[in-house]
Amino acid sequence: MIQSPASAAPHADSPVLQVKPLGFPWETLDPFLFCVYHDDAYPAANAQMGPAASLAGRDIGQDFSRKDGWSMYHGSAVPGFPAHPHRGFETVTIVRKGLIDHADSLGAMARFGQGDVQWLTAGQGVVHSEMFPLLDEKGPNPLELFQIWLNLPARSKMAAPNFTMFWSQAIPRLTALDADGRATEVAVIAGRLDAPHAGVTEPLPPPPDSWAARPDADVAIWTICMAPGARWTLPAASGKDTRRQLYFFKGASVAVAGQAVSRASAIELRANAAVELVNGLDEAEFLLLQGRPIGEPVAQYGPFVMNTQAEIRQTLADYQRTQFGGWPWQGSAPVHGREPARFARHPGGAEERPAESAAASDSATA
């Protein structure tokens, strides 16, 4: 991923408000708290579902080195993030390549990837682990994902935790063709996309206590992939106070409302304006995050996000006392075997799997 200084300052009448280089993590706007992009070129797997490579020179347990194109993160044998707590917000995890093994203090577990999305409302508190099992012992094991933290308003911070899976086949996807037949594909994880000549994508239902469940919150989470030379107009948002950030994370160059952007960038846009995107010579990819701000104070201490420091102190006391229900799994970094099939087992034992032969819902061509 290229990182370098931002493009020239936008014109005063441009819908482009600001362009900044991408860092780690990516800067976000209220109602979002955090966005991180992992793109790891893991090698072949060993018998323990970790990398068949030396771990020498890595700070095991805290490895964000990207040595040889990958990191172990907080994992010691399998890369990933062993058991850790959250309170007061939601995680939206979009896995584009590879697999994640999830386990949590609610007793839920899942293996998901290949375009699947997990939406976890931490609410009053949950402990979960997110491990990245490597299953191919003969070839590489690429992993690519976004994790997005979406804040909860004060009235919902102590809501009951909720675990939701959006399987890849159920995620609305729209393919728009420009006048020259060049394609732009949009995957709609949250929000509604109205596209001329292509109908309307019906939004996926976000968890009930999410800020995204409020129609007036105008939350949207979309990924956008443009073929070389493609043109596509990003439609205006519906909310008057909506804020919008477009992350250009793959590709050589793109014009955004006529402004050239030639580096990986976070582009803040006027949400009430339609914006034409014109791609350069390579395939380009974007993540769009938008929503009406919650507009409340944010007090954060690591994985806890409340409104006041007093609430943070109470959260620390609650976690020390209850461990948010405890940890029902053996070890802090469980993985779910060598079978690659994706599944989710919910609290109480109900199990679901993706409909493997199902076509993507609400797909259309413009």
From TrEMBL:
Residues 328-366 are annotated as: Disordered. CDD domains: cupin_pirin_N (cd02909). Transmembrane segments: none annotated. Residues 223-325 form the Pirin C-terminal domain. This is Pirin domain protein. Residues 74-150 form the Pirin N-terminal domain. It comes from the Bacteria. Residues 356-366 have a biased composition (Low complexity). Residues 336-355 have a biased composition (Basic and acidic residues). It holds the Pfam family Pirin. Belongs to the pirin family. It comes from Polaromonas naphthalenivorans (strain CJ2). Gene3D superfamilies: Jelly Rolls.
